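Good morning C.,

I know you're traveling, so I'll keep this short. The sequence:
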Amino acid sequence: MENILGIDESGKGDFFGPLVIAGVLADKSGGEKLTRAGVRDSKKIADNKIIELSGWISANFIHSVVSIGPEKYNQLYNQINNLNKLLAWGHVRAESITQVAAASILARAAFLRQMEKLSALYAMVLPKGAGDLVDKAAAIFVRKYGMDALSKVAKVHFKNYKKIAK
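The tokens, ready to paste straight into the viewer:
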């Protein structure tokens, strides 16, 4: 049977938190097993179900998860200056392929866990995304911890950072 390696990422569009890249290897029967378990595009699954599915996927399939925390992300981005090149070892965005959807779930779960850890470490909720709520949280974070600390929890090349840095 032919194996398919699904690769996906989470956190690319989020100001706060890490960039996480995951891969899941499965053959056709494994892909069917993933589908039966409810694996599909992670954007269509609630966060608590993501965490649950990620444990099951990790226990049943060959996989790899790489988490690039905000400080390392910012360092790499400053060197490379291009997010797509940062992802250059690359993956195909094809959540319709079950193995990619499984990788997406693992990446999202790792992202959610890291966001929870960062929120706990700094005693404040660090929201997902890059909208107005994130801008407000970033302003509060800077008031509490200073501008220099923002690079420990956020991707500083985002427009959100430029708004706060004014």
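Safe travels,
E.
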